[in-house]
Fold each of these.
Amino acid sequence: MGDALASPEAIERGLIARGLGRSYGDAAQLEGGAVIDATGLQAIGPVHVAGERATVDVGGGVSLGDLARRVAPQGWFPPVMPGTRHVTVGGAIAADIHGKNHQRDGGFGGTVESLSLVGADGVQRPVTRESDRALFEATVGGMGLTGVITSARLQLEPLPSGVVEVATQRTSSLDATLRAIVDGDATHRYSVAWLDLSGPGRRARGIVQHGNLAAPLGLDEDQRRPAYAPRRALPVPPLPGRGVVRDPIVKSFNLAYWRRPRKATALVPLPRFLHPLDGAASWPRLFGASGLLQYQCVLPDGQERTLAALVEAFTKAPVSPSLAVLKRLGPQGEGMLSFPLQGWTLAVDLPAWNAEVYLMLDRMDEVVAQAGGRVYLAKDARLRPDLLAAMYPRLPEWREVKQRIDPEGRIRSDLAERLGLVPSASRIG
Ligand SMILES: Cc1cc2nc3c(=O)[nH]c(=O)nc-3n(C[C@H](O)[C@H](O)[C@H](O)COP(=O)(O)OP(=O)(O)OC[C@H]3O[C@@H](n4cnc5c(N)ncnc54)[C@H](O)[C@@H]3O)c2cc1C
């Protein structure tokens, strides 16, 4: 761990930890400051089994993919996995990430038994719910702003095989998609919907997938073996300008993807079901040098009409959304700044070059806040600070903890400064 090249001025300016940089915005950046590369924290301890449960001690820089690869052959698996395996344990805790099973199993923070935190004073301390509940809850989902997570003890769950039983259905409207998700959730652990928002006539048609870890009985030998073995990713070269994500291409791709014949049920290897985007390395390069913007919000149950209005606005966006994913989320977890709350979460990828998109998203933020929802900080690069308190009602509690453990606001990021989570830089020192 440590940025050996950080100058005294940079350290004086402030510090923030960085994992694998998979947050979409400015959460793991600090202009002019010291960004601590935590990926050197690579230890993975033995799996400790206690009946139906197990735990493992891991360094904060271990990726969830590496952890899964290590523990799966022993019949264990991290219960919460995001849409990419290239996420560190520290990043997963800091964003209290959710998987396709949040509605059943909650977020990553719920799988953390304890963690080790190096605070602004440079002291490493163990943190548990019992030792300091407020600090634990400020750290889970706290976007790295309480300190550097150097290690954690994580719960694991039994892994019965190397495949997921996946049920897939095509839907032709948002209403049908919502119904299909809710119906399937009664008997499945994982659920996710891909939506086509690439045009006003699209009516948010979708592909809904539900999944359960497959029991070994009846599987062939390869599938029966508990394993997490991702294939090598296809390389994407750097592309200039606006890349290849253009309206006509997006529209044709989405149409072809929606129409593609699919089996109603199939056995799918874990990596392909959990991390489909990892099949193409550096896929954001498709958006060219100008990059992409992801908007992810959650709306509480009962706000389905607001969701429909957002979806409709996206279908009329100045540029076609290239990817849109809809998921259910379960109840709010322990983290004071954790994103999930019971309802619907919509994540939409857009090219970053179009100025009108930013105005549209600004309007959406207000609608989301008014509806009792929130924007996901791990995906954000542009939210206005005045909406933060409405979206995150436990913010005052979080500020109390931050004040207690880092009164000078030494641990800070561009996101924290932009959103007013720390005092402005001029007051340090
Ligand atoms: C393709 C893709 C799919 C995704 N799917 C999902 C999903 O399904 N669900 C979901 O919830 N998220 C998802 N994400 C977002 C991702 O899980 C989070 O942004 C996660 O925080 C990234 O982890 P990282 O290691 O890359 O951390 P970084 O992006 O490097 O950092 C993210 C935050 O964590 C903090 N941090 C990192 N390491 C430490 C540490 N050791 N100690 C303290 N703080 C630390 C940073 O300061 C920063 O605030 C996805 C991202 C991508 C690119």
Amino acid sequence: MHYSMLADNHRKPTVLILGAAGLLGSRLNVFLKSNGYDCITHSLSKPAQYHADISDAEQATNLFNIADPDVIINLVALTDVDKCEREPNKSYLMNVRTVENIVHWIKTSNKTCHLIHISSDQLYDGLGPHKENDVTLTNYYAFSKYAAEIACGSVKSTILRTNFFGKSSVKDRSSITDWIYDSARTGKSIQVFEDIMFAPISITTLNKMIGLCICKQPIGIYNLGSRHGMSKADFAYFFVRSLGLSSRNMSRTITSRVNFLQTYRPKDMRTDSSLFERELGIKLPELADEIKLVAEEYREVT
Ligand SMILES: NC(=O)c1ccc[n+]([C@@H]2O[C@H](COP(=O)([O-])OP(=O)(O)OC[C@H]3O[C@@H](n4cnc5c(N)ncnc54)[C@H](OP(=O)(O)O)[C@@H]3O)[C@@H](O)[C@H]2O)c1
């Protein structure tokens, strides 16, 4: 399936990717460019076309005026849950103030710019799968991501509540599958949680869905996960099995048995993505199939 809108559109939209050097951004940038999108990349400190602190109103406005985007994809965030808990104001600045600055520019510039904002499945807890109105906030990271969504809501925006996995192309930024793969290859012991449920999607699928959102620009908040989520423990064992590697260094545990988690983590973040499927006219994949797909990314380098 090809998601590019370019064939039936008069003009290519200019897409500004904020946080383009991060875990998701570095792969999204490559995906969109290889599908013919006109992308401008931004980072705070890593190589990119533009550099700006988006929590600073003046720097953010200058960047947006120069880039003059038709679509902004916002991936800027503080994703470290423990750091958000320890430093709530930093969490506000990086997760909320940044969005307030983007929204202010969209409202005050005299052009139509669509915002695609990436939110999180951490906004849920209690028995899933969760629909979009079933929010339960349990830590500062979740609070800040929710506050960012509220800010987004005052402009034309697509908010994607998601979680993702796949091979990182950034040296100092590992994904959950990088962590599991590394432990299976090196024999380093890891503990995997059987009391945390989720339904993430592969970065590959997420990139395609973001491409589709650039074309269709649906307005609102959408869950974007795979079908039939599972526990993090089952995810890890299934991934290692898909790679044909040994799982002898992995052990199952539950959150109350470990002492390395500083901050409460939601226990069931599985999302019901039927609203997104209906709105976009697509069917999202099964988590098991996504894991097999991602295992191929690692097999290519094994
Ligand atoms: N990682 C996950 O598993 C996960 C799960 C669910 C949702 N999400 C959401 O998905 C999005 C992307 O996550 P990710 O894991 O790709 O994030 P990431 O790797 O941590 O990248 C975040 C980017 O934001 C940039 N940044 C941070 N503060 C900034 C500021 N004040 N001004 C400008 N840029 C700033 C970073 O700077 P540099 O460019 O200097 O590195 C980095 O490029 C986030 O909204 C996150 O909440 C992530």
Amino acid sequence: MGNGFAEIYGEYLRDESRQVGTAESIIFPKTEEEIAASVRECNLKNISVTTQGAKTGLAASAVPFGGHIINLSRMNKVTGARYDGKQDRFFLKVQPGVLLTEIRKYLINKSFITEGWDEESLKTLEHMDKNQWFYSTDPTEASASIGGIAACNASGAKSFRYGSAREHIESIRVVLTDGDVLSLKRGQSIAANGIFELVTESGKIFSGKLPKYKMPAVSKNTSGYYNKPDMDMIDLFIGSDGTLGIISEIEIELNRTQQSDWGVTIFMPDEDKALDLVRALRGERISGMSEPMKLRPSAIEFFSHEALKMLKLQQKTNPAFSSVQEIQQGYHTAIFIEIEGDSDDEIWEGIEELGDVIVMLGGKEEYTWVANNAAGLEKLHSFRHACPECVNMQIDEAKKTDSRITKLGTDMSVPDERLKEVMKMYNEDIERNNLHAVIFGHVGNNHLHVNIIPRNMDEYKRGKDLFLVWAEKIAAMGGAVSAEHGVGKLKVPFLQKMYSKDELDEMRNLKKVFDPKQLLNRGAIFAYEGVDA
Ligand SMILES: Cc1cc2nc3c(=O)[nH]c(=O)nc-3n(C[C@H](O)[C@H](O)[C@H](O)COP(=O)(O)OP(=O)(O)OC[C@H]3O[C@@H](n4cnc5c(N)ncnc54)[C@H](O)[C@@H]3O)c2cc1C
């Protein structure tokens, strides 16, 4: 397949990061056995392997650095369901290539393609008819695959309440480089004092020592391998960026849908007050409050002043954004929250409490948008989604000045107490470097996407340099250089700011236990000589 590969399979050489790689061959397996046969052959011939889900990743993780591609888009079936009546827990078993959008469609319509399902799974569907369930992991991009979501430990806005993908994965099957399969169920493969032992389906034992590095104390982190001395070993493979094995089956847990789901966008007079509101919404008792708020949102999102200005301009000039609600004068910074509850009355109580805090912080209730039904909430979601879309449009414009310009967006998180400090750092550094940037994202988790919009190549280079400076400063604050997109290939230099060489060597040694020839996803997480991503 060597000749003309790029002409025929060009679309498989890139992902949403818009980086482009190279490869010599590709397969689209339909079964776990086909994956196993393919990796076994590559292992024997020393050919590197890049696994692909839906290629929506933003860290170039699915972009191949030569070798063979295993694209899982044809392993796209939901293969079973399970209900644990004692604990009222509901699970779906899926192949890795199933798309998030498909899962949502099945759950809303309560209609699955059940061909090949066992008796227990079919019975389980009867239970589903009586109750509403949803899959809480929502990495914004609904065309992502469940395998990719697991491999990146993706999250998104509602992770503030529900946690990242990891918290909703009950079991996985992983094909290792020699074609052997590990079946891991949560709670059944626990390391003890940093020592682990895993047995494959053929009886082969993988054992070793876990690294000593400590992960940052942040609520969102996908910077290198998950590592704790007494960890569940399933967590090593979740978020491992396709570098340890190929996930061939996943059991995801669903959550019960709540009766009411409202959205509120609050426009605050300045950024500092907006951040105080965030702190209050997370349950901190801020100055002026006699007790912490009772309201517990499921998502807390942020829009900087520049992000609002960008959206306001688009509203005036771009018909594609006409459905987005008009931003009134008198805004500065906005916070969007989503609130779920058992009834509208319950949510309304929370909204009244919120109104008092907004006024206390100098905000005005008339600058607040409340959506109390699905259509209204959808409008607020499109307002949020318009941010990355506008950024992409501006990057495309900048690209016309120099084709080397690509998206420059951060994905770093810090501990709660560092929120204001990190915002100050972003604002001051952007101003000092005379750059233009919009900031938005998951402020509830202190996880903001700072998007630098370069006007030329010089600004692009300075922005890129600044990201490396921020990676170092954020690591020093006890933060994570990647909170939800994974390290992939683009953030390898950032990870080097977060962990020492020895710690990264320990991480690499862990990889070598499962992938001794280091053939899986070359260039991801670990530097690969000769390639500048
Ligand atoms: C507009 C936009 C917004 C986004 N917003 C968010 C957000 O809010 N939150 C968030 O978390 N993410 C976000 N993302 C990125 C998100 O992480 C990815 O969209 C998704 O999780 C990756 O899934 P995928 O199937 O596309 O994987 P790919 O991009 O194909 O692969 C990603 C990585 O997973 C590996 N991989 C894929 N499948 C497997 C498998 N079966 N076994 C082993 N390794 C595998 C690949 O090798 C690669 O390392 C956004 C992306 C876009 C384009």
Amino acid sequence: MNANVIQRVIQFISKAAGIVLTPDKAYFIDARLSPLLREENLGTIEALLSKVEAGDRRLSARMIDALTTNETFFFRDRTPFDHFRNIIIPELIQRRPAGKTLRIWCAACSSGQEPFSLVMLLDEMKAQLGGRQVEIHASDISESILAKAKSGIFNQFEVQRGLPTKLLLQYFKKDGDNWQISPDVVRRVNFFRHNLLEDPSRLGTFDVVFCRNVLIYFDRPTRAKIFAGIADRLAPDGFMLLGGAESTFGVTDRFTSHPKERMLHIPLPPRKAPVAVPGRAIA
Ligand SMILES: C[S@@+](CC[C@H](N)C(=O)[O-])C[C@H]1O[C@@H](n2cnc3c(N)ncnc32)[C@H](O)[C@@H]1O
């Protein structure tokens, strides 16, 4: 693969999804795009790029699917789910009147393990919720991974990662070599396509946003823009959870840490731009 082709792939995925790839990732690009070339009967990455650059939206979506990393598992990293149970829900319940629906957004949900983990956790906490409805909205840029999430079908390896046996037996049915999560659980999640580079204002206001293990793929200005979009979509007393390797530090001033837990992020109002007084320098 020559340097020009690598550069065109890098430009494509940066513009389409915000994902930063560097020229030393030639092996990665090749490994990810080769199956797509075979399936589409295209001889080279250059041939694929020509079609995509000419506006082939189907191939463009397939190329995004191929270049995104969908690694996820049930109750991933455990701690965010502990914070959800021990801090977020108790605080929200205290502040919200009984009839108020709570809204959660999983902003890069991959094959659904994160929102499905929340459904199972919320079932466990039902008595605490005092009859409050909880909506779970889950989005991803990749149509194919969303289709997998909506199918609710997981293989043996996937159900062995992070999912307690008790929950496997309670919520899943064996289906050949795979496991099918209860359709009831799938129905409780509103899956939809959303590119984090796009304005999220049409999505309404959320009490909790999980945006985990996706910002690591973006550069700092993109992360800052996404944080601002999430801060605008969060209730003033809402919460944001990030992946273990992700931080707001040095990227945005729209969040601060929860007083009880550094890794739990709470929104700050946007800082007002200083007003220029004629004839005076702005400090
Ligand atoms: C590594 S997975 C993380 C899944 C889950 N949040 C977790 O922590 O286990 C990252 C997901 O981000 C999605 N993604 C990448 N770029 C995106 C973008 N610009 N907008 C929305 N989703 C994106 C990928 O398709 C992938 O499913």
